[in-house]
Design a protein that fits this description.
With 244 residues, the protein is α/β, with parallel strands linked by helices. Helix content is 28%, strand content 29%. The protein is globular.
């Protein structure tokens, strides 16, 4: 089964997404699954990795590994082996544009698609949620031009053929995302912090939430106007055709 859990945001280290993280681990059906953390978007931040180990390793009982892809020579074998043996691949947040460029340069994008097709659980937050979709609403320009920047549309892996926006209300991205949908068309899926969308086999979904009031949204254009709807939280999977 092919599974994606795309989390809108929320501090994993402060326990904000704990019930979602627990759910991700349970999806493997294993007591001590291997989880591969890919922190490319954060510039391979070692503290991010250290804290990730404390949550997914110490708290959730996984066997964590990390794949650093920046500022070092990394072999194709290391990349291949770590991705292939993972039960869960969790991608951290940060600079989506930089991450996607690096992945494509090293062929990581191809290996991640293969792992997903083979049943590895794909998960992540913010940039690590955007990456699974065709496009994402990204703040990557803030890393290059902190004094003056705008959100941009970044191309992801395209496993799900729509555009995704994290931190929807928390970072007040909603107005710009609606404008992007109005201009580019299509249907947008947006998750606020502590909310996530779980997608199974590209044809069914359900919404997860680790905090009361944390929601996911569907944004689309109808009769020339932008419509924004809350996607209902449900324990049961629903046809993804209902929302995209």
């Amino acid at each position: 089964m092919r599974t994606i859990v795309a989390i809108g945001g929320g501090s994993i280290f402060e326990g904000a997404t704990r019930t979602i993280d627990e759910h991700i681990v349970k999806l493997t059906g294993k007591k001590n699954p291997r989880v591969l953390f890919i922190p490319t978007a954060s510039g391979d931040d070692p503290l991010y990795w250290e804290n990730f180990q404390k949550i997914y390793g110490d708290k959730l009982g996984c066997r964590p590994e990390v794949l650093f892809l920046l500022n070092r020579k990394v072999s194709k074998k290391e990349i291949h082996d770590k991705i292939e043996r993972a039960d869960i691949i969790y991608v951290g947040g940060g600079n989506t544009l930089k991450m996607m460029r690096r992945w494509r340069l090293l062929g990581v994008d191809i290996l991640l698609k293969k792992a997903w097709n083979n049943g590895t659980i794909m998960a992540g937050t913010s940039a690590g949620a955007i990456c699974w979709f065709q496009f994402g609403h990204s703040d990557s320009m803030a890393y290059y031009h902190p004094e003056k920047w705008e959100h941009i549309r970044v191309k992801g892996l395209g496993l799900i053929n729509t555009i995704y926006c994290p931190h929807f209300l928390k970072e007040k991205r909603d107005a710009h995302f609606r404008k992007m949908i109005s201009k580019k068309g299509g249907v947008g899926i947006a998750c606020d912090d502590c909310s996530a969308i779980e997608i199974r086999n590209t044809d069914s979904y359900k919404i997860l939430s680790s905090k009361k009031g944390a929601n996911s949204f569907r944004i689309y254009k109808k009769n020339g106007k932008i419509v924004q709807e809350i996607i209902e939280i449900s324990k049961e999977f629903k046809p993804i055709s209902e929302i995209i």
